[in-house]
Request: fold
Amino acid sequence: QSVLTQPPSVSAAPGQKVTISCSGGSSNIGNNYVSWYQQLPGTAPELLIYDTDQRPSGIPDRFSGSKSGTSATLGITGLQTGDEADYYCVTWDLRLSAYLFGTGTKVTVL
Amino acid sequence: QVHLVQSGAEVKKPGASVKVSCKTSGYTFGASAMSWVRQAPGQGLEWMGWISAYNGNTNYAQKFQGRVTMTTDTSTSTAYMELRSLRSDDTAVYYCARPQGSSWWGDYFDYWGQGTLVTVSS
Reply:
């Protein structure tokens, strides 16, 4: 497996919660940290979550990360229009000795 | 403050080469590493490779091996990515990204360059 699988899109109304899944395997998510990135249209990705569940300074606690087995999840609560973006998960694959990126998920605020 | 500033957009013909630079500031470049990630129009992110600015060790994604060379210049705190034998499907925005974390490869990318659009067209 050379890619992590994410749902193409998720949507919810303002103030609601969305979760984005990231499915991998034992050589990647199962044995390594996961990070998550937000990419607003026309801009570079920005780190949202590192070490699976840690937030960099300046990232609101509306964003959270978790992992179970070979899948990781990004949660966004209190959804805002400014959260409309593409979101990517990333981890290292021990078998490939390479970073794997998720397929990306577009979040739409209804 | 950490900054990664990339070189400007490039237009190349098929078969040509392109070299993108990523000038860094605000941290000890020589003790770090750099990764390169690209994004084709309307597509997702794709990791290309990694270079240690400390000792020049590289790790290229299998897809790009033989066609990509990553280098660093510690005197100017700049990383470079050269891609050869360009094809139309190499048209993409190329990003440099600083790996960080406890593992030797870096567990995450905490800072990114602004991106460099490379267009390959005859």
Notes: The mean pLDDT of chain B is 96. Residues 82 and 120 of chain B are 14 Å apart (CA to CA). Chain B touches chain A at residues 35, 37, 44-47, 50, 59, 61-62, 95, 97, 100-101, 103, 105, 107-110, 112-115 (CB under 8 Å). Chain B is about 0% helix and 50% strand.
